[in-house]
Automatic annotation (TrEMBL):
Low complexity: compositionally biased ranges: 342-361
Pfam families: DUF4340
Organism: Thermochromatium tepidum ATCC 43061
Membrane-crossing residue ranges in chain numbering: 40-60
Presence of keyword Ligase: no
Protein name from the UniProt record: DUF4340 domain-containing protein
Keywords: Membrane, Transmembrane, Transmembrane helix
Region (Disordered) location: 342-371
Domain DUF4340: 105-281
Domain of life: Bacteria
Length: 371
């Protein structure tokens, strides 16, 4: 037993000596665990753990901030609370106010002329759905630069309720397509909002209901002027009292009826604030009759110092402003313009021969005559 142990120890010593002689490191020399307990390594490992903890903490906190901000309404109101919308432009620019009376949007300064209700409702829906994003700036210099200062802005929109103002939104420059810098008036931070400047127009004409002159074309039964009258005749029209040589221009008649049925306008005035008309040019008066017995009387006149026209409809209290593109060339309409005009006679290809005899050309004197 003793001899066996001595042989094993001798063999181990012989292998260790052989490893040393061949230059191969022993198993004890390959151990790296003692190096990890060095003070420098321990310090670096602790610093790494601290950095990982800080980064993990920031990761946990950042998503909660981003998730919270978009859920906060920018303006705290409900669309049904709003009874009036007031939109002001930059200093000295036009402003408009739209009021809701009994569920209908009107423009009060025009004696309650109907406003584009769908646009007003859509604006309130858009504003109520705006969320408060992360601010892009908070300084007074930034508010002035982005045109959202209290006294320097592109638009100021005020929503009013039964008890007074509900919210005010100040809007400024456009950073990109359909985006605006803006802020609530009680918030000093500037935000980038999902709005377009056209959504908050301060022009009264942009909020007019454009359907007040629309007629059902199929129900127009007759149109009459000073010296002519058109009546519906099946799919076409006939000129009442036309002479044998007068053929109605059907395309011209259809154009007239189509224009009257779809007439649009650029602005509206109260009767007391209507612009002056050009009295040097005659006005056009038309009577439009509908199949149900209803009739409308139009008076269209050229405006003074303008290419536009004004339209007065019967006893309505408003005057409509038409552009020349709305009315086209109908302002000079008379009976002759509704008749098919004969084609102009073609000029003769050759000049007619003169009936007067041509003068004889005197011949030069000859030598005989000289003798």
């Amino acid at each position: 037993m003793i001899a066996t142990t001595e042989i094993a120890l001798s063999k181990s010593a012989t292998e260790g000596a052989a490893d040393s002689s061949t230059g191969v490191p022993s198993r004890a020399d390959l151990s790296w665990r003692p190096d990890l307990r060095a003070p420098l390594i321990m310090g670096l490992a602790g610093l790494l753990v601290l950095q990982l903890l800080i980064a993990f903490g920031q990761y946990l906190s950042a998503p909660s901030t981003r998730a919270f901000a978009p859920q906060t309404p920018l303006l705290a109101f409900k669309p049904e609370q709003v009874t009036a919308i007031r939109i002001e432009g930059a200093e000295g620019a036009e402003s408009v106010r739209i009021d809701r009376h009994n569920g209908t949007w009107v423009i009060g300064e025009l004696d309650d002329f109907p406003a584009a209700g769908f646009k007003a409702d859509q604006l309130l829906t858009t504003l109520s759905q705006l969320k408060r994003p992360l601010p892009v700036a908070t300084s007074a210099e930034a508010r002035a630069r982005f045109k959202v200062a209290d006294t320097g802005f592109n638009r100021r929109l005020t929503l009013e309720g039964a008890s007074g103002p509900i919210a005010t939104l100040i809007l400024g420059e456009t950073p990109r397509f359909r985006r605006l810098f803006g802020r609530p008036s009680d918030d000093s931070a500037v935000y980038e909002l999902d709005l377009a400047l056209a959504d908050v127009s301060n022009r009264r004409a942009d909020w007019l209901d454009q359907g007040q002159l629309r007629l059902d074309q199929a129900k127009i039964s007759a149109v009459a002027g000073a010296d002519w009258r058109l009546e519906r005749d099946g799919e076409g029209w006939r000129l009442v009292g036309a002479e044998a040589k007068e053929t109605l221009d059907q395309e011209r008649a259809r154009d007239l009826v189509r224009t009257l049925a779809n007439l649009s306008y650029r602005d509206v005035f109260t009767a007391t604030k209507a612009p002056a008309e050009d009295t040097s040019k005659p006005a056009l008066e038309l009577r439009i009759e509908l199949s149900a017995g209803e009739a409308h009387v139009y008076r269209i006149a050229r405006l003074a110092d303008s290419d536009d026209y004004m339209l007065k409809v019967g006893d309505r209290p408003h005057v409509f402003r038409l552009s020349k593109y709305d009315w086209m060339d109908m302002i000079d309409l008379d009976r002759s313009k509704l008749i098919v005009q004969p084609a102009p006679a073609k000029a003769a290809d050759a000049q007619p021969e003169s009936s007067e005899p041509a003068e004889a050309t005197p011949s030069p004197p000859s030598d005989t005559d000289a003798d």
